[in-house]
Amino acid sequence: MWGIIATWRMAKEGLELAEEILKNQGDAGDAIEKAIQAVEDFPYYKSVGYGGLPNEDMEVELDAAYMNGNTLSVGAVGAIRDFANPISIARRLSHEKVNCILVSEGAEKFAHKEGFERKNMLTERAKIHYHNRMKETVQELKPYIGHDTVGMVCLDETGKMTAATSTSGLFMKKKGRIGDSPVIGSGFYVDSQIGGASATGLGEDLMKGCISYTIVQLMEMGMHPQKACEKAVFDLDLKLKQRRGQAGDLSVIAMNCKGEFGVATNIDGFSFVVCLPHQQPTVYLVKRQGNHCVYQPASQKWLDDYMQTRMAPLKRK
């Protein structure tokens, strides 16, 4: 049995690459890295990698993380600039016993020493988004509407599981800001004997529930991934509203060691992609119904509109 699940429609092409690896008895680490690289390299996805939206100083600072579910090894980078594939740097760091989570200049120094590709990640398209936003009144930072962190969980035929994330974080964020994505237990967690989870949304709120680790704990207690995702999201959503008056965007995906998967969200418009031996990479749209979530395949019209919107020409206001 093998499988891979990912947040957001933007992961579909990456999962198509991962499918080729997994169905040929490939490694879950190779598959998930290749899948996330594809998202990082595509300039029209505004929240990951090349073309990711900049911080308030018009710098693209990227976060990424990788976890091996067999060894529980983790590697992560935060606020790294001018490197093409932060997921690959994070995976390389997962082989270190110490110093496996690096940020800013330290992460950049390590990446340069290890020979990773340098690249200016700020595109002209992202500059237009930045300048247009500067003309608006910005009272509060919010996750950029449409899509956010790419997070994945992968299972290969040996039973090895991996989890990984990559993001440029909040649009117009403060320099040096890091959300949940590179934080173990919040943005991601995986244990090959149980399963894994990954989150997307408002990192500051997702971290308050250590939500990915919570989902894996619930699966360890015997809960199906779907029920585990729903419980984790809706319990945290309720707690935040009771304690703070509101909750930010909370969306999660999960897969257990049997290849069963689950999703949950507290927003409208969340999408995910899943690929299994009997199912090619398929995009689903998720809706919340009370304390449950239901999903259905995206229509061809929705898929066409998605790409047309993201690739539409931009004009500076």
Automatic annotation (TrEMBL):
Pfam name, any one: Asparaginase_2
Q: Which InterPro entries does the record cross-reference, listed alphabetically?
A: Ntn_hydrolases_N (IPR029055), Peptidase_T2 (IPR000246)
Tell me which domain of life the UniProt entry assigns to the organism this sequence originates from. Bacteria
Give the protein name, as stated in the record: N(4)-(Beta-N-acetylglucosaminyl)-L-asparaginase
